[in-house]
Fold this protein.
Amino acid sequence: MLNLPIMMPFVNLSAQRDAYRQELEKAEKAVLESGCYIGGLEVQALEQELSAYCGGVQTVTCGSGTQAIEIALMALGLEPGDQVIVPDFTFIAPAECVAKLGGTPVFADIDPKTLQIDPESVKNLVGPKTKGIIAVNLFGQCAPYGPLRKIADEHGLWILEDSAQAFGATYTAGGTGCGTAAGGNARRACTFGDISITSFYPSKPLGCYGDGGAIFTANAKYAEKARLIANHGSRERYRHVEIGVNGRLDALQAAVLRVKLRHLDQELKQRAENAKVYDEFFAGLSGFAPQAIVAGNTSTYAQYTVLAENRDEFIAKLNAAGIPYCIHYPMPLHRQACFDGRGKANDATCPATEKTCSQVISLPFCAFTDVQAVVDRLK
Ligand SMILES: Cc1ncc(COP(=O)(O)O)c(C=O)c1O
């Protein structure tokens, strides 16, 4: 019989539940016994707490991060035929939502070190049909909002900040003109877009026990519109003034999120400590480069992701050591079959994305991951 080491979890949600069990069970029981399961006071309280945490924005919760993008695009007034610049290297949701609403995703390349959307590439893709930019805070680090906001302002575009992976991250603009507040001080994610969104998918830095998401904006008109769309276009029962969606968050998910939000800052601190352990390990090896975090930014490390020059060899080592891994992401989005005939980008326009897809690999990571144990198994 093979004597393989026991596989550790990629994200240790059981350890997190154990840590907050009493608080979670109390909050869950209160909702179950309240008879109010969708929306209501629990959801309202969560929205207020999320707004206070981010600062300067209103929050509208909804059913998932993908749904939050869809609602945001509807609130921004996306029309069929409109073009939206999206990163070529990310999860499919931003480009998918643009295409679903009849728009055309136009795929921008990334910076090969930070793996974030490259403002130079964005600049070259702006055309007469471009209406906006979706910037993704990839793996937990904010996109470069200083330069992106400059491009958006020059061309009259909106920015949709996809912070599905980065609720709680901070970004230092080093200048003015980003989002709602002036100045170069660090600000929290979800405040940099004309509309911003996050996901509460269970493994996200702030995750619930099912699907969930939220929309954030400092613009009162967008907030009102997003709330309307998220409720079947209805302010008054059975009166519908817009085409909308069923975009509701369960009270049970809100209760879980309220508990976890109280622990988020401590978890983010622990995540940063854990990332340091991996950083030190990879600094001593050749052929590996962790995602670069720009000075002044803090990442949530939704993923701890490295570029491995010889990924197959590294995967063999991980398998032998019983260490799970994920490939985020194996393929540039513009090559996905669902976009055939839609975006403008071609293979030649996104070389950094192509190379990154062939090298990228994510390791087990959360606030409860024993990263030292991972490193010890790899030594
Ligand atoms: C960058 C990004 N955007 C959007 C989403 C969609 O979020 P959800 O799974 O809650 O729909 C995800 C989820 O992984 C994501 O990583």
